[in-house]
Amino acid sequence: MSEEHMIRAKLQADGTVVQLMADGSTQPFESRTDWPRLNAMTEEDIEDGARSDPDNPPMTDEELARMRRVPDPKAIRQRLGMTQEEFAAHFQISVGTLRDWEQRARRLDSTAKAYLRVIEQAPDAVMEALEG
Prior knowledge:
Distance between the termini: 61 Å
Largest sheet: 3 strands, antiparallel
Shape: flat
């Protein structure tokens, strides 16, 4: 791709993304969103639009029921009333790994998801098993 067809972007300290110009200056990206039209949409309009999308139709109640949610390590820890250090120690997880999971810096693999589901359902049994 040639330089003249390339658009450069920069993430600002406030979280906004701006276009970086050839001279080093920045300018906001032009919005092509029709906000008045979107703000005027009713829930029925939104649902109709979603149903008409052949690439990503809304899920049925049956499909939603079959889905398994990803466990939230922070929510589990907070429900147990533990600090990160306590949770990590009780369940033999490194504090760094737990922090990464909670900050979503590291994705949960299938083993971690299963372990967190067991901790969520039976924390005392897990702690007892790990003590022995």
